[in-house]
Amino acid sequence: MVEFEDSNDYLPTKRLETLVDGIFAIAMTLLVLGLAVPVIGGPLSNTIVENSYSGLLSNFFAFILSFLLLAVFWNGHHRIFNQIKMINSTLLWINVIWLMFIVLVPFSASSLGQYGSYILPNVIFNINMLGIGIFLYLNSYYALRKNFIKELKPETKIRLRHNLGFILISITALILSFIIAGWSTTLYALLIPLNLAARKI
User: Fold this and answer.
1) What is the pTM of this model?
2) Dihedrals phi, psi of 35, to nearest 5 degrees
3) Could you tell me if 115 and 51 are in contact, meaning their C-beta atoms sit under 8 angstroms apart?
4) What is the maximum span of the chain, computed from C-alpha positions, in angstroms?
5) Distance (Å, rounded) from C-alpha 104 to C-alpha 27?
6) Is residue 11 within a helix (H) or strand (E), and if so which, with residue range?
7) Residue spans per domain, the chain
8) Which of 117, 163, 115, 103 is closest to 139 using CA atoms?
């Protein structure tokens, strides 16, 4: 059990967790703004309307992918903070910078949905994911290194490796942005079996 010699050097986790929950709620809600009902000029027909809505498929893909990824990030952060009772200023700022990348997701997702077949929007989205992955990893790594985790469970180290795996996926997707831009983000589908594997272990 960790003993905190000077409580003035540490902060309670409750306010940070409240901030995290609020920012995730806003970011996940803002994602839907990337979906806009198409404005169709001229005479309407079923074919014209269907063609207009089919143009939103990439936007729906970006919305669903980003929403699920944010859910995974929130879940991972929630699980590690269930084991952390106090934080210091360094861990606080790791989380603040991580949240900065979180609030960028609606922008990068909207860019991906609108121009997903081009290199730059994919690069922006994948750099966004990479930043989230790096700071989520640092969050767990720093807490472990400083013995801020009161009750160390085997799943904690497994989750740390899981976070490292996400970083590798993001780097691979970033490289693929320059080769097959329109398909680079499909790599994040690997998170589903990765999550299942971590749970089984």
Assistant:
1) 0.85
2) -105, 115
3) no
4) 74
5) 8
6) strand 11-12
7) 10-200
8) 163
pLDDT in tens, the chain (201 residues): 444 444 456 777 888 999 999 999 999 999 998 888 877 877 888 888 888 888 888 899 999 999 999 998 998 898 888 888 788 899 999 999 999 999 999 999 999 999 989 999 999 999 999 999 999 999 988 988 888 877 666 666 667 777 888 899 999 999 999 999 888 998 888 776 666 665 555
Which residues have C-beta within 8 Å of that of residue 172, sequence separation ≥ 6? 187
Structure tokens at 61: 């893909």
Q: What is the DSSP string of 35-93?
A: --PPP--S---HHHHHHHHHTTHHHHHHHHHHHHHHHHHHHHHHHHHTSB-EE-HHHHH
Q: What tokens appear for 125 in the block?
A: 């989205």
* Pick from 129, 133, 132: nearest CA to 185: 129
Residue 168 in tokens: 């590798």
Beta-ladder partners of 149 = 84
